[in-house]
From TrEMBL:
Protein name: Glycylpeptide N-tetradecanoyltransferase
Keywords for this protein: Acyltransferase, Cytoplasm, Transferase
Cited SUPFAM superfamilies: Acyl-CoA N-acyltransferases (Nat)
Catalyzed chemical reaction(s): N-terminal glycyl-[protein] + tetradecanoyl-CoA = N-tetradecanoylglycyl-[protein] + CoA + H(+)
Residue stretches making up the Glycylpeptide N-tetradecanoyltransferase N-terminal domain: 54-213
PANTHER family: GLYCYLPEPTIDE N-TETRADECANOYLTRANSFERASE (PTHR11377:SF5), N-MYRISTOYL TRANSFERASE (PTHR11377)
Organism: Naumovozyma castellii (Yeast)
Task performed by this protein: Adds a myristoyl group to the N-terminal glycine residue of certain cellular proteins.
GO cellular component, as recorded: cytosol
Length: 457
């Protein structure tokens, strides 16, 4: 809910003497969401931030209740053991049947169990941070939220934190207002470990984003995307025109490009750390975390035989003369289920993840014309190859945000701006705004670019 809409709702409430029943169902939900966030340690929409730092500094772990929050009588808390295949199956079914859909309810994320094992079992993960709600009588899982430990760097400040993800409530129970209870319960469990900040994202506007990025899409299989209604046929264009426009070569162009291996971790990690240091908001990885996120923790031998089932794809560029790693990039797979379509059941989706290159390291000012030109040329080559690799493993579209240095290549590589925006939030922390790669009119901003260097799944 943005500030303008909030003011409209407040005005309506004032006209109706604060009676929520006078609002329509969507307006009542938005007003309740606003009232909930007003009770939380987050910056308000109109707050004039003077200094960055924690909002609520007073509490200690011993101040936090040891018992879970109360629930409605028909529900009970359930700590999910994702090493237990039955419980993992419960999470799999809940999210695949009830998680985020597009506004037309035509597509829904299609998570796999391997994806959850990768996403929820980062180094340092805690079982108690995988929080479920079940129906007491049946044992059916009807809500879930997760946290994983991360270290954030916001400009010069290092913040011990968690990343909150996969908040999902069964579609038939969303009137029960379980989301605020889940958020408060995961907060309680994390606070008990002396962690007071959290990074989270949402497509909706809550109080109060530190940055906003836009989703962009690069068609790989335009014909299929058109068939299922993911994309439209532009005016004055034919299907043949569009197929030709988005055609890709079958082989890569960058010399020395190869899949990343365990032996590359040390050098790729150093390259990555140096590149990430340019952004205002990043996640600081340990080497163990770097290995987990970019090599994965599933059976690599199995994945090598069936690349179409692989979760994360990471590549390095090795200079043939020096043997030095000059570049790194990664993307991950998270397909969509296509709902109610007679000819197709799934869309293969690739998401640009992290990357790094030394292309502009020799320049003092990375925003100078020469440095920008060098970086833009190299990113065009690297991400161009990432797109080809994604198509070769049967992905149908390649997605990227306007974060990192992405606005340098999005237009060159035929990424179209999507309808969706992603807002970044830090719980219990005031922060000055961070550029998200967008101009005021929401177009790409290749000059200022983005200072968001963190990528969430």
């Amino acid at each position: 809910m943005d500030e303008k809409k909030l003011q409209e709702l407040l005005k309506l409430l004032q006209m109706n003497n604060g009676d929520l029943s006078k609002l329509n169902e969507q307006q009542r939900k938005e007003m309740k969401d606003y009232k909930f966030w007003k009770t939380q340690p987050v910056a308000s929409f109109d707050e004039d931030i003077k200094t960055e730092g924690p909002i609520d500094k007073a509490k200690k772990p011993e101040d936090i209740p040891a018992s879970p929050l109360p629930l409605l009588n028909e529900f009970e808390w359930s700590t999910i053991d994702i090493n237990n295949q039955t419980e993992l199956e419960d999470v799999f079914l809940l999210l695949n049947e009830n998680y985020v859909e597009d506004k037309d309810a035509a597509f829904r994320f299609n998570y796999t169990k391997d994806f959850f094992n990768w996403a929820l079992k980062a180094p340092g993960w805690k079982e108690e941070w995988h929080v479920g709600v079940r129906v007491k009588k049946s044992g059916k899982l009807i809500a879930f939220i997760s946290a994983i430990p991360i270290t954030l760097k916001l400009r010069e400040n290092t913040i011990k934190s968690v990343e909150i993800n996969f908040l999902c409530i069964h579609k038939q129970l969303r009137a029960k207002r379980l989301a605020p209870v889940l958020i408060k319960e995961i907060t309680r469990r994390v606070n008990r470990h002396n962690i007071w900040q959290a990074l989270y994202t949402a497509g909706t506007v809550l109080p109060s984003p530190v940055s906003t990025c836009r989703y962009t899409h690069r068609p790989l299989n335009w014909s299929k995307l058109y068939d299922v209604g993911f994309t439209d046929l532009p005016p004055n264009q034919t299907k043949t025109d569009m197929l030709a426009h988005f055609a890709l070569p079958k082989t890569n162009k960058v010399a020395g490009l190869r899949p990343m291996e365990p032996k590359d971790i040390e050098e790729a990690y150093k390259l990555f750390e140096k590149y990430q240091s340019r952004f205002d908001l990043v996640q600081l990885f340990t080497k163990e975390e770097f290995s987990h996120w970019f090599l994965g923790n599933v059976d690599e031998n199995k994945q090598e035989k069936d690349l179409e089932k692989k979760i994360v794809f990471s590549y390095v560029v090795e200079d043939s003369k020096s043997g030095k790693l000059t570049d790194f990039f990664s993307f991950y797979s998270l397909p969509f289920t296509i709902l109610n379509h007679p000819g197709h059941s799934e869309l293969g989706i690739g998401y640009l993840y992290y990357y790094a290159t030394d292309a502009d390291f020799s320049f003092e000012d990375r925003f100078s014309n020469d440095a920008t030109a060098a970086l833009r040329k190299r990113l065009d080559e690297l991400i161009g190859d990432a797109i080809i690799l994604a198509k070769n493993v049967k992905m149908d579209v390649f997605n990227a945000l306007t974060s990192q240095d992405n606005t340098l290549f999005l237009e060159d590589l035929k990424f179209a701006p999507g309808d969706g925006f992603l807002n970044f939030y830090i719980f219990n922390y005031r922060a000055f705004p961070i550029t998200g790669g967008l101009k005021e009119n929401k177009a790409y901003d290749p000059e200022k670019r983005s200072n968001i260097g963190v990528v969430m799944l």
